[in-house]
Amino acid sequence: MEPSRVDAVIIGAGPVGLFAAFELGLFGIKCKLIDTMDRAGGQCAALYADKPIYDIPGMPSILAEDLVGQLLRQVAPFEPQFTFGRTATGLRRLDDGRLRVAIDDEAVDATVVVIAAGGGVFVPKPSLSEQPGGDGGYVMKPSPVASWDLTMHDDLILVDTEKFQTSVTGVFAIGDVAWYPGKLRLILSGFHEAALMAQAARRIVRPGERLPLQYTTSSSDLQKKLGVA
Amino acid sequence: MEPSRVDAVIIGAGPVGLFAAFELGLFGIKCKLIDTMDRAGGQCAALYADKPIYDIPGMPSILAEDLVGQLLRQVAPFEPQFTFGRTATGLRRLDDGRLRVAIDDEAVDATVVVIAAGGGVFVPKPSLSEQPGGDGGYVMKPSPVASWDLTMHDDLILVDTEKFQTSVTGVFAIGDVAWYPGKLRLILSGFHEAALMAQAARRIVRPGERLPLQYTTSSSDLQKKLGVA
């Protein structure tokens, strides 16, 4: 089967992967998100969907599942593609410079790859779970990305704090899977990392474009992309 | 007059200053926020209070004044002190290691100082404004902090990306006034910077404490501080 093509593959459709698709969308970059789970939300959906979070900036309290819902609404204008229930198992550079992501037995070619896979991948619990009530839940397994040829820091992916790029050009890592000095595994840090990653990814996907920083509050161009102009 | 004392002085009560008080509050650090304006909100209140922002993570659209209101609600459990209509004009190290912040003709002594003053300070427009309808608005002037003895990058304060500390130990800079490679002047970056700053500030204010990362979703200690336990 011929590999499909997209500007950016985002591995992981948790809060940070969703916001990465939003930030890339502001630059007109089309994204495909891949997640082992059968829906978006990552840890927020798998581990504490019905629990309140109190430290998302500007939200005195929000249920994890509601945060996921709001992030899905926010990214919706950019119509990201979702591939659920599939695992990104391999990554290699093609002769033309693009990156080929293996997804089980399929493949997708992308200009940039963003790893936002949290600390691992969530897979359904075995149906004969020893834990009462465990059926229907998820357990976390190490992500296959840990075995890719990226410079690691223990079991996390080393990135710089300017672009959140890994040791491989065009491959970025953000959220809980990324490490740099001072790294905190907070959702809000993943959001910041997504914004800076998007600036760097844009330079790769659209190398000729002028790059003034635009604000959604004042830019009619961004508002048009968001469908609010 | 005897200087007052507080754990942390935050210069600037815009969105980033407010969230800094929240993050420090999670560690039990008491804050005084100083702002030249007569209310909280910084640029969000002075320049575009009634305008929607579309790129705050998890908020598809929010008016700038509503974002400020929500940040005030979020920090309220920690009862920060606000000093409005006053300008921080000077900073010096005392013999005992604390920092003395001059506020016009008063002073306050703090263990750490967080500069979150945006690109400058907002002062009321002159009443004989040349702009029709200009009365009641604000204009931005350079902040006096630019003249303090901190290493600068052009007119911004150079910080590291681990602690967001300036060239002076115990003095941090976050938000639009701070610079590091890749810096974007986005509200969401200021939020991330506030979280990492708070970790470093805690080590100075409470050097003996153990430092496991706690989550508001699962920590009964943090929930008690927030008044939601």
What would you note in describing this structure?
- 2 copies of one chain form a homodimer.
- In chain A, strands 1, 2, 5, 6, 7, 8 and 13 form a 7-stranded mixed beta sheet that branches. In chain A, strands 11-12-14 form a 3-stranded mixed beta sheet, with no helix packed on it. A two-stranded antiparallel sheet of chain A has the order 3-4.
- Helices cover 24% and strands 26% of the residues of chain A.
- Chain A has helices at residues 15-26, 42-46, 64-75, 187-205, 220-225, and strands at residues 4-11, 31-35, 52-53, 62-63, 81-84, 88-93, 99-103, 106-115, 121-124, 138-141, 152-153, 156-158, 171-173, 178-179.
- In chain A, helix 1 links the parallel strand 1 (4-11) and strand 2 (31-35).
- Chain A is globular, with a radius of gyration of 17 Å.
- In chain A, helix 1 runs parallel beside helix 4 (187-205).
- The longest helix of chain A is centred in the C-terminal third of the chain and has 19 residues, at 187-205.
- Chain A contains 5 helices and 14 strands.
- With 229 residues, chain A is an alpha/beta fold.
- The model of chain A has no long low-confidence stretch (mean pLDDT 92).
- The relative contact order of chain A is 0.18.
- Chains A and B meet through helix 1, strand 3, helix 3 and helix 4 of A and helix 1, strand 3, helix 3 and helix 4 of B.
